[in-house]
Structure formats: structure tokens, C-alpha cells
Design brief:
The protein is an all-alpha fold.
Length: 83
């Protein structure tokens, strides 16, 4: 039938193909996991930037309100100006 050399070559080729498939499957999983982690980090950074921009906007708005309230208080207390 077949010689041992041909059978061994086919067996070695099948083992190499199987090992290549297993290694490829493993590396694909590693890269998919790392890309998911990077996308999650990017989304977190984008969310934090949006939250920071919103916080800065609210702080500026509150500073305007405080300035307006202070101006109103100064106008309502004319006796402080005399002293």
C-alpha cells in the first residue's frame, strides 16, 4: 500500500495544518480581545471628554450667575457704598 514515508509526511502535514489553525484561532482571539479593550478605552475617553466639556460649560454658567447675583446684591445695599 503506502510506504511509511508517505504516511508520515501526510501525518506531519496534518499536524502542521492543525497547529497552524490552532495558533491562528488563538491569535485571532487575542487580537479581538485587545481591540475590544482599545475600543472600550476610546469610548471611556470620549465620554470623559464630553463630561469635562459639560462640566466646564456648567462652571462658566454658574460663574456668570454668581457675578450677576453679586451685582444685584451690591445694587441692593447702598449703605455699603457709603461706609
Amino acid at each position: 500500500m503506502f510506504e511509511f514515508g508517505v504516511l508520515a509526511s501526510i501525518l506531519v502535514a496534518a499536524i502542521c495544518v492543525g497547529a497552524g489553525v490552532a495558533l491562528g484561532w488563538y491569535l485571532r482571539g487575542v487580537f479581538v480581545d485587545s481591540s475590544l479593550e482599545l475600543r472600550a478605552q476610546t469610548a471611556d475617553i470620549d465620554w470623559l471628554r464630553a463630561a469635562l466639556a459639560d462640566s466646564e460649560k456648567r462652571s462658566a454658567q454658574q460663574a456668570e450667575w454668581l457675578s450677576a447675583m453679586e451685582a444685584e446684591l451690591v445694587e441692593l445695599r447702598p449703605e455699603d457704598k457709603r461706609a
